[in-house]
Amino acid sequence: MYKYLLFDLDGTITKSEEGIFNCIKYALDWAGIPYPEYRVFRSFIGPSLYDSFVREFGMDDAKAKEMVAKYRERYNVVGLFEAEVYDGVADTLRALKEKGCILSVATSKPTEPTLRILEKFGVGKYFDVVVGSNPDGTGSDKKHIISQVLESLKKDHGLTEDMIKSNQVVMIGDRRYDIEGGKACGLQTIGVLYGYGSREEFEAVGADNIVESPEEILNL
Fold it and tell me: How far apart, in Å, do the first and last CA atoms of the chain sit?
């Protein structure tokens, strides 16, 4: 059993595509840009918004930042709560805490709305550390975020480098960015298939474990 578990948010704790897609549409409507195919909407779940607007629409720096700001205009009021916690997640978090595990959130979403989401859906009480990106969406690289979580755990929750080296720390997420970020920080990794990624995606980046449900994490 892992002692320290880091969780992604979107696609791992919460099923959140409704709010994300609605806010992308809100920004596109403002910019007068036609909606892309469904694949493009799905590609926004995982990486930073800024990177996604640049990658999928070929936007320059200024335009991408405008689009992120417009997205946040709706998201921070309505979109963040257009979501639900996946079945089994709350029970799994509770069971992990009862076993004495230290739980954290490492997400590319800004920290402030992440805290609001966790509290709204009743799971904030399970997490000792929550780290996201900056309000403007910068600082969203997954390796950077995970590194910040680890520093906080070392400072306040007894984590040591030896614990990392002895595989007591794991990053859990639904996209390759979570797996790549975790591995870059020397962590074990778990890919979850109930989110927005695929087994092929996880196998391609070398996830240590792949699970189909939150409850399976308890058996690793």
Answer: 6
| pLDDT of the chain, 220 residues: tens digit per residue | 899 999 999 999 999 999 999 999 999 999 999 999 999 999 998 888 999 999 999 999 999 999 999 999 999 999 999 999 999 999 999 999 999 999 999 999 999 999 999 999 999 999 999 999 987 777 889 999 999 999 999 999 999 999 999 999 999 999 999 999 999 999 999 999 999 999 999 999 999 999 999 999 999 9
Strands 169-173 and 129-133: unpaired
Give one DSSP letter per residue of 121-142, joined into a string: TT-GGG-SEEEEE-TTS-S--H
Under a CB-based contact definition with an 8 Å cutoff, are residues 29 and 194 in contact? no
Q: Strand pairing partners for 209?
A: 190
CA dihedral 138, 144, 145, 149 (to 10 degrees): -140
Distance CA 7, CA 26 (A): 28
> Among 96, 87, 150, which residue's Cα sits nearest to residue 125?
96
Beta strands 14-15; 4-7: pairing state: unpaired
Catalytic positions: 8
Give the pair of three-digit tokens for residue 165: 């080296």
Cβ neighbour number for residue 105 with a 10 Å cutoff? 27
Alpha carbon dihedral 137, 139, 142, 147, in 10-degree steps, equals: -150
